[in-house]
Automatic annotation (TrEMBL):
UniProt xrefs under Pfam families: LssY_C
Domain of life: Bacteria
Organism (species): Paraburkholderia terrae
Domain LssY-like C-terminal: start-end pairs: 82-192
InterPro entries: LssY-like-C_dom
Swiss-Prot/TrEMBL keywords: Plasmid
The protein's name: LssY-like C-terminal domain-containing protein
Length: 234
């Protein structure tokens, strides 16, 4: 694990931390989180917050590093603000030949679940994927943010550090007819779901990971697909 990650988390006063004793209360708090990051002034909507991580920082960091994510903040990352601050950490998974691939921008949230820290994150990848220029400091978000989120799920399943996962609402309206505009004049569409990943210390195999029936992901997608307009580019 990158030792610089030990400098996180952001120290919230105890008076503002929501302590969730069960999954129902955690889902309710996650749903009330902002749908998206903003610019520094809070006046322009930025990328959607489509993932939540629950667990000790060392366990989350170890799972990411095992899947080739490394700490790597760019100018475009630091322009994104949640809770009025820049990301607490930015990690990127490098594709073949060192090309930039999936990124994770994370912020410690004022939430605890059964004593565990809770992070909210934006998972995305650049337009052109692994073919994007390596030295370009600006990254335009690829419109299919759900695919980037699902690729993270696969990575964490294979990391050996995932205990359980589920989905929660809160990442914006489901499949808007017109894609939303972000800071970098990119557009995106989403099913509106956040993945909630629970991390553990001891290694776990794929068969050990518990799938929580919080928001039925497949049923929701089937319903949305049948009613989506062509303009949504699903």
């Amino acid at each position: 694990m990158d030792p610089r990650l030990a400098q996180i988390p952001f120290p919230y006063p105890e008076s503002v931390v929501a302590d969730c004793p069960d999954l129902a209360s955690l889902r309710a708090v996650i749903k009330r989180l902002p749908c998206c990051a903003t610019n520094a002034a809070g006046t322009v909507q930025a990328d959607p917050l489509n993932a939540v991580g629950v667990g000790q920082l060392a366990d989350i960091g170890a799972a990411l590093v095992r899947r080739d994510y490394r700490r790597d903040a760019r100018e475009s990352d630091l322009a994104q603000r949640v809770f009025g601050r820049e990301p607490d950490f930015v990690m990127r998974k490098q594709a073949q030949a060192g090309a930039p691939s999936t990124w994770i921008r994370g912020w410690l949230a004022p939430i605890r679940f059964q004593g565990q820290l809770v992070y909210v994150a934006q998972v995305g990848r650049p337009v052109a994927g692994r073919f994007a220029p390596r030295d370009d400091p600006h990254r335009i978000l690829h419109e299919n943010v759900d695919e980037a989120r699902n690729l993270l799920i696969q990575d964490m399943m294979y990391s050996g550090g995932l205990d359980k996962l589920g989905f929660a609402n809160g990442a914006g309206e489901a499949l808007p007819t017109r894609p939303r505009t972000t800071l970098d004049v990119a557009t995106y569409y989403t099913d509106g779901l956040r993945v909630v990943l629970f991390f553990s210390t001891r290694p776990r195999s794929l068969s050990d990971v518990d799938l929580l029936d919080c928001v039925p992901y497949l049923e929701k997608r089937d319903t949305l697909q049948s009613g989506a307009s062509r303009d949504s580019r699903q």
